[in-house]
Amino acid sequence: xxxxxxxxxxxVSYLTVEYDPxxxxxxxxxxxxxxxxxxxxxxxxxPHCMICGIMHGNEIAGALVLDQLLSEEMRPLxxxxxxxxxxxxxxxxxxxxxxxxxxxxxxxxxxxxxQELTDTSQNSYEIKRxxxxxxxxxxxxxxxxIHSMQASGPAVAISSDxxxxxxxxxxxxxxxxxxxxxxxxxxxxxxxxxxxxxxxxHPRAAIQIEAGQHWERKTVVKANQIVRQFxxxxxxxxxxxxxxxLPQRQLKTVQIMQQSADSFHFSxxxxxxxxxxxxxxxxxxxxxKQITTPVDNCYLIMPVHFRRFAGPCGxxxxxxxxxxx
Length: 325
What we know:
The protein has helices spanning about 10, 60-70, 90, 125-135, 165-170, 215-235, and strands at about 35-40, 50-55, 80-85, 140-150, 155-160, 175-180, 205-215, 250-260, 265, 275, 280-285, 290, 300, 310-320. It is α/β, with parallel strands linked by helices. The chain has two domains: about 10-235, Aminopeptidase (3-Layer(aba) Sandwich); about 250-320, CATH 2.40.50.630. Strand 11 (about 280-285) and strand 12 form a beta hairpin. The longest helix is centred in the C-terminal third of the chain and has 17 residues, at about 215-235.
């Protein structure tokens, strides 16, 4: 069960849901023997690409993107193409009047891709769903996992620090911020952390895209653009005109802000991607303590507005000069 969220004036302003969730039940049967999972094989050599959405039930943009791609009967020119509705039970609990409360059924499905897959003593809904999906995911070459975030701001890609992931994300010119790094906790593996996507001997990659604020209409538009560019870049769908490329910054995390008091608040409504020129710039107040930037030339990425006591409040990151092209 999720703990109670602590709201303030800024976080309340992000509760407006600008678009309606869709009914995903027509996709329940799938065509693979796995509910809500669809795979199409061109019969020609090429990569197996997967588009995954709604791993978190409150991040509803992914369902709309998957619906559009399936509705237009998108099929791969080469290789295989798989569409995955990740956490359908959580998604179907979504309530626009209480939109923060359907992230998962039992536990975060984006933290169960390690020993949980084989530990038969653990049987939450999300673990059983991960086990159901894993045999197909383990055949995928390139995976794009559509997510969204609590704050407004431009899209962010999160990936491992492998060369394959780096080459994959460089193709996504509608994503201005990229954060790469190693697995933060080997006991809580995300989908992108699977060893399958982190083997230097094989050019496979899983990219997590935070396409924008959860319930802003433009997040659906941006996610759709990113997905299509991803598939075009691997030759699975025909090339088409895309918006002008955005400059892409390769970032590394220098601090994950953690609140220690139940009265944490941001000093203003910072967008994800806000740049702070000087160290010591005020970001928020945690009880009686000021939270400031630890270094010069720092970006605030994905500030957390729907906070739970003693939880993370966002990332502070700087340009990774070694990865800048």
